[in-house]
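Study this fold:
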Amino acid sequence: MKNKSYLFYITGIFIFLTMFIACASSPGPENGGELPSWVTMPPADTSDTVYFIGAGSNTEGDSAKARNLAGADVVSSITRFLGVKVSSDTTVTAKDTLDKFTSTLDQTIRETSSAQIGDFKIVESFTDKSGTTINVYLLGSYNKKALLEEQARIKAVFAEQKAAISGPEAEGDSLVASSAYFAGAVKYIEAASAASTTDIENAEIKYERNMNKAREAVGNINLYALNDNLNAFIKQTFDNPFELKITGTPGIDGKVLSGVPVRITYKIVRENGRKAIRSESVITDSNGMISFFRPPANFVGTERVTMSLDLSASLETLENVPDKLYAQLESLEKIVNSKKIGFTYNVISRAKEIATAVMIIDQDNSGAATGKTETASGILEVLTSEGFSIRSIDVGSDILKMGDESIISTIAKKYAGRFERLVFGTVGISDFQKDGDRFTVKVSGDIKVADLGSGEIIYTSGNRFKSAMGSNAASAMSTAFKQFGKVIGESMANNLP
């Protein structure tokens, strides 16, 4: 239906053209006499001019209709000269370009009421009547240079628009034939994207065909982990990189795929203790390999590095596809997301082997020492269960009123040769509430760990807090300090180098 409407539109233009041609022709509506020679033997084109003839007839004696047909024949001849043809594959841009060419022609005739339209003009007109039949013949001339320029321009637009789909698809076919599956998939997605934004009748068919080809190409991409279960000490680099190989044919020794983007993701722990995901993008080398050294981890435990095929740049071009085309995109995204490999690694701490002392003062809401060691007890409970070599030391509370350097220096001298690290700090009550027969106590503090040899602070908890409830003030306080100690102990177990 779109093509029919378009043809009706062109015919209308032809009608307007011939109506004004009638006004511009010097002969009368019925010249009579013999046909002029140019009707049967058109003038030969020259180096400067191209000639076009149009003929139209009406058996009811209507000269206007005959002229309309003759004008349409002239413009049809010019269109044939251009060498472009509107079909179901013609894009909106190409159609618009041709429309502007013909509509400009029509508009110029309307405005000037003449038979000259820029570089085109009607040079001869002849009307012949035989009975009730009217025959009209028109001879038009077009500046050759100008017409050839229009021809080149319009042909380029038609070729460019068609190539937006067919070009990438053909490239994709060629790449896939040589097992270059990733590059082929990129080209198929490019073609599908072009098809999704065009108005050609079979756009959906082209879109679906290219999406199916892209999905098949991605399905032939193989990811292989060349190592696993790597170990490193906390805050130190891994001895070996995580290694991945990508092939276009099955097997680790299959045809390698170079230049393939890979997204690498891994966990980090921020200074505030919160976990986050960091990602990096790398490209396979000439051997289809990825060798990735994970940055030193600032936590202890078992985690994973994930490497996945990265087609995000190409898939972004399909983000705005119509809803009716979205299922194909989801299907492609699903198979792309399946192309990933996970590597397990272990971050180990030497802290368990290092003799460590704990010196923490619990304070009541007046700032006085409670005389109990609930926070230290909580830390000891957690770290002992994790295998740490750790014990509590009893030092007067006045020492914790010194600056960090003085505290570390004093303990280093007093316990030289016995301890290498010191856990120290004060924890106090920051809130106390009584609701009926229930008590709620909130404690907070900043606990640090120092290396007694270098004097360096190697861990700080930051100002943390913990709340607890109890049936009396003493039990609520005891529980709050103890739970606070456990929270700090768990943090140390995961973060001490």
Notes: The first strand starts at residue 49 and ends at 58.
